[in-house]
Amino acid sequence: MSMIGVTADALTAGGIRAAGVLATSGTLRAGLYGDALRRRGVAVIEPDEPGQRQVMAAIRAVKGGLAGPAHRRALAEVSRSLTDRGAERIVTACTELVLILDDSGVSVPVIDSARLLARRVADVALGREVRSSR
């Protein structure tokens, strides 16, 4: 079971055609989410260079226990730039990001990949029918 696959499945099932992805620079460079989403027909919209610096600063702040309102506002601003470019959902592809970003500052739903994976694991454990997440 893959957090990336589960996220891609959820976006596809929801009929999403374009998703903004917030993740570490390494995750974006590796194409982990991008490849899985594109294989399912979902366009991937990533932050521009200044936006990615804001994302990385927010991740470092969460890890250091220093995240505050300025980081929340910065992530909301980056998310809005992704929606302005066509993102129908914002994917938090880094577990730290959901600690400081929610739907309140963004005009589209924010998708928490870790929460989706937890739900899928619970469904499997409880014997509920689930689709492949590869």
Note the beta-strand portion: 5-15%
The number of helical elements comes to 6
Distance between the termini: 7 Å
Q: pLDDT below 50 for ≥5 consecutive residues: which ranges?
A: none
Classify the helix fraction into a percent range.
Answer: 40-55%
Sheet having the most strands? 4 strands, parallel
| Computed structural class | alpha/beta
pLDDT averaged residue by residue: 93
* Total beta strand runs: 4
Order of helices and strands: HEHHEHHEEH
Q: Which descriptor suits the 3D outline?
A: globular
Any idea what the radius of gyration is? 14 Å
Task: Describe the oligomeric state of these chains in a short phrase.
Answer: single chain
Strands of the biggest beta sheet: in what spatial order?
2-1-3-4
How is this structure best described in words?
The protein is of the alpha/beta class and 134 residues long. Helix 1 runs parallel beside helix 3 (32-39) and helix 1 (3-13) crosses helix 6 (113-125). Helix content is 51%, strand content 11%. It has a four-stranded parallel sheet with strand order 2-1-3-4, with helices on both faces. The mean pLDDT is 93. The protein is built from six helices and four strands.
